[in-house]
Design brief:
37% helix, seven-stranded mixed beta sheet, 16 helices, 21 strands, alpha/beta, Aldehyde Dehydrogenase, Chain A, domain 1, 526 residues, single chain
Amino acid sequence: MPQFLGHNYIGGQRSANGSLKLQSVDAATGEALPQDFYQATPQEVDAAAKAAAAAYPAYRALSASRRAQFLDAIADELDALGDAFVELVCRETALPAARIKGERGRTSGQMRLFATVLRRGDFYGARIDKALPDRQPLPRPDLRQYRIGLGPVAVFGASNFPLAFSTAGGDTAAALAAGCPVVFKAHSGHMATAERVADAIIRAAETTEMPAGVFNMIFGGGVGEALVKHPAIQAVGFTGSLKGGRALCDMAAARPQPIPVFAEMSSINPVIVLPQALQARAETVARELTASVVQGCGQFCTNPGLVIGLASPAFSAFTQQVAQLIGDQPAQTMLNAGTLSSYDKGLQKLLAHPGIQHLAGQAQAGHQARPQLFKADVSLLIDGDEVLQEEVFGPTTVFVEVADQAQLSAALHGLHGQLTATIIGEPADLQQFAELTPLLEQKVGRILLNGYPTGVEVCDAMVHGGPYPATSDARGTSVGSLAIDRFLRPVCFQNYPDSLLPDALKNANPLRIQRLVDGTPSRDSL
């Protein structure tokens, strides 16, 4: 493997103009890794944004098939990152090798999914209303609409997914697919990983002859504001805390030209366990639920942080089963010291709240996170208590017992927006509690039945989003092919001759999917 430079990536070149050096650390030991990374200066942030802006006209003008070739090349480069790379990611994050290998496959798979989207052409959203010159009282002109990339996109790396939500992650893949150059802000928790992945992207860009500046990356703290406020940046992708996401949204809204921020921020992902399911398979549900809570040390945005059930001897016994299982779980190393500190603070808020009872889990000690189980009074949900609405990022969940079906509905009405909600039930439950699905549709982006939310399939139908504060814009998703929509905007052409139209709108284009002719769908839209 080549030596680390630790330099910023700007316009196809490496840059290290600043004197401040940063270091990544071994997540398990806290030991600093030997390579230095250079904090981006304000001038380098400016240069990175301008490089993306300079690349935008040429990059968006490329055919969809050429951009697909680029994404496929990135995927190939990611797949070629070998065992030494996996060991590096494990060292920076304390995540196991099997998880990293799986995430590497998911990351390259995301690139190939968007390459497929580009080749099939439906992302253009082409719509055509042909001219009606004889219409009375006024003729109708020929009108044709398609979508283009917004422009340069700033993407912020996530801590918990060093590959799939980071340098070459879903936001980067969707932006590049849309025709938008990227300026990526590397996460401080895995800068060495970011450099290796950025090298792979640059190799792919050079192999496929993409414009210089199609991908840029900067290191350092405190550079986010300058990046979001830069006039060249036209959209932001972010995965992280509610505090961080809100700050970026406020910065973007305060610009002379406000821009959209697509932020995934906070979710407690309620699991509703219904009575007949407990009667049929309480022990199995207890094991599966516990496994979901502690998976990956609870460091998933879809971790089930709230479990709701109807008061009964069966639910009391189920609670005790989960308490026993949680108490038996080992401590785990978290991504970094900052994540562990945030977990500790979240636990302290729960422990200090008079309406919340600690049920299971050993006291925090040392440098690892210990799984915990709490029980909260249902009034906290119904009354909108903020402590119960806040995500505790780690291997912890809170049980809530409701008196009856009406109180269950009231509790769910009190929930803020979420990424997911899960119903555990038998057919008789689903018939009795039929009102849950339409209620949850208003609260979440994905509803699961008899499954667990810690697992997000990368495909066309997936929605990884939800009402605020789960995300800043509930109309989109950060996982799945629909994620491309966030970085596109519509443009309409009126009375253009066929020869001057974009290929996606020409009469002979075979890729048109959403075509409207004279107000009715044509055959190629069905």
